[in-house]
Amino acid sequence: xxxxxxxxxxxxxxxxxxxxxxxxxxxxxxxxxxxxxxxxxxxxxxxxxxxxxxxxxxxxxxxxxxxxxxxxxxxxxxxxxxxxxxxxxxxxxxxxxxxxxxxxxxxxxxxxxxxxxxxxxxxxxxxxxxxxxxxxxxxxxxxxxxxxxxxxxxxxxxxxxxxxxxxxxxxxxxxxxxxxxxxxxxxxxxxxxxxxxxxxxxxxxxxxxxxxxxxxxxxxxxxxxx
Length: 226
Prior knowledge:
This protein is mainly alpha-helical and about 230 residues long.
């Protein structure tokens, strides 16, 4: 019995040696076959944590969306050029005769119409102030100068004084600040005693905004009453 087991084991080893000899050295690898079709997409992951306003973390918050919109808008605003503008007529000029853009009268009519009302077409002294009329700011002051007494906080005739209109309108305007490089001195000058002046005419200035020393006092500079 022991002889039979030993004989069978010897035959098995001999057969393995014969197969190894027949196989020879391994040949070169064949080319890789084409990739199989893409498998189905996995399940969608969970949404990110909710933002401060409770919205899904996968979307922009209101503050983020506003920031993106503002950034996109500012991208179209060019930086101020070499020309420094001072005086109301330095910026408020007619660029479209059909509409009056961007005269002071146009601005007045456009803003009032937004509120569903109509701005007068004639000033108290008879000056035409239609949207297409290129009027001086002194015409505006006939109604919008600061009132006193029972008109305190209002215009002398109009519901609002000019100061309560133009200051927030200009300083809230990115176009005024970034495109024109606007500041308080775009519209004003300060006198020796600290009094403020409104520049009702375009001022001749150098590249720093300093007025021409041959034209002092500044033409059209009108002192502002407290």
